[in-house]
Design brief:
single chain; 335 residues; mainly alpha; 6 helices; 0% strand
């Protein structure tokens, strides 16, 4: 890993962070989808069914009031019968809608019970409207008490059972929605925490790997390198124990090598200076001896010149002596 380029490390770290962010987003979207499905089950399915069932129950109650009103005030019977007819049609539409909504086995069983209760109720209601419309109020009243009201009670019982079941299912769906919501929070927190921990670990790894290769802070390493480049070999470079591969460690070795080279050059220069001094002294001595030899030669030449003069003088004296001897010899001969 330490052989990786810094750019490669940074790209890998940021790529992993992006991947974790995408994972967090994906988990969040998935959990939100579950929440949405649970809420749809509550709002669009369970609540919608309960709303239709409540409307059926309300229509049945309206019909019950309208039948009583028609019997109590015959003059308003026609208007009440029109209202009953309208409510009956509304109930038929509601039953058709419920038949499409209800799909669980128990729900279908309860719906079949509702239809079974609605059929005699609808027949009894039609008979009541027929009798009341013919102004046979006593027969209509008797029919209401003996047939229509029991049929209505059976229908209300079936409706209440279906409502109770749908409310129970809605509570369960609400629990599922709450659980899904909690799951979103938990998942987002868990994945977010994991992403944060991995990001921190990556940051620490990158910082340590870079500072490990440099041997210290980049600014400090740059300053030390600048001072060494400027020729300041006295700067103190501190490295960690066992650090032999960092930039500062290499810089320290270079500083030590340069110091050793400079010291060697200085020693050699001192040796050359000493040898030059010795040579200069030798030259001075040689010059002095040469001057002494020259003086001696001059003295010798002077002595030789004096000797030559003496020899010449002796020669001249010898010649004079010879001439005197010749003269004396001549005189002697002449005698």
């Amino acid at each position: 890993m330490n052989n990786m380029k810094i750019s490669t490390r940074l790209m890998a770290a940021f790529g992993l962070i992006v991947a974790l962010t995408m994972l967090l987003g994906g988990v969040t979207l998935y959990k939100l989808k579950l929440v949405d499905e649970a809420l749809d089950d509550v709002v669009k399915d369970r609540y919608a069914k309960i709303s239709v069932l409540v409307d059926l129950k309300d229509d049945s109650g309206d019909i019950a009031r309208q039948t009583r009103t028609a019997l109590l005030w015959p003059a308003e019977a026609k208007g009440q019968l029109d209202g009953i007819d309208k409510s009956t049609k509304t109930m038929a539409v509601a039953f058709d809608k419920l038949e499409k909504f209800v799909w669980t086995p128990k729900g279908r069983t309860l719906f079949d019970a509702m239809k079974a209760a609605y059929s005699p109720y609808s027949t009894a209601l039609a008979r009541f409207s027929e009798l009341a419309g013919a102004d046979k109020m006593e027969e209509a009243k008797l029919h209401l008490q003996q047939t229509l009201r029991p049929a209505q009670s059976n229908l209300l019982k079936a409706l209440n059972e279906q409502i109770d079941f749908q409310q129970e299912m809605m509570v369960k769906a609400s629990v599922v929605a709450d659980t899904a919501t909690d799951s979103v929070e938990t998942s987002v927190f868990a994945v977010g925490s994991l992403a944060c921990l991995i990001s921190i670990a990556l940051a620490v790894w990158i910082v340590r790997s870079i500072t490990g290769q440099l041997g210290g802070e980049p600014a400090a390493a740059a300053e030390l390198a600048k001072r060494v480049a400027d020729g300041d070999l006295s700067v103190q470079i501190s490295v960690k124990d066992g650090d032999n591969a960092s930039l500062l460690a290499a810089l320290k070795r270079m500083q030590e090598s340069l110091s050793s080279i400079v010291n060697g050059v200085r020693q050699n220069a001192d040796s050359v200076a000493t040898a030059s001094g010795q040579i200069s002294q030798g030259n001075s001595d040689l010059s002095s001896r040469t001057e002494e030899q020259a003086s001696a030669l001059q003295q010798t030449a002077a002595s030789m010149k004096q000797l030559a003069s003496t020899v010449k003088q002796n020669a001249d004296n010898a010649q004079q002596g010879n001439e005197l001897a010749l003269a004396a010899s001549t005189v002697a001969v002449r005698g």
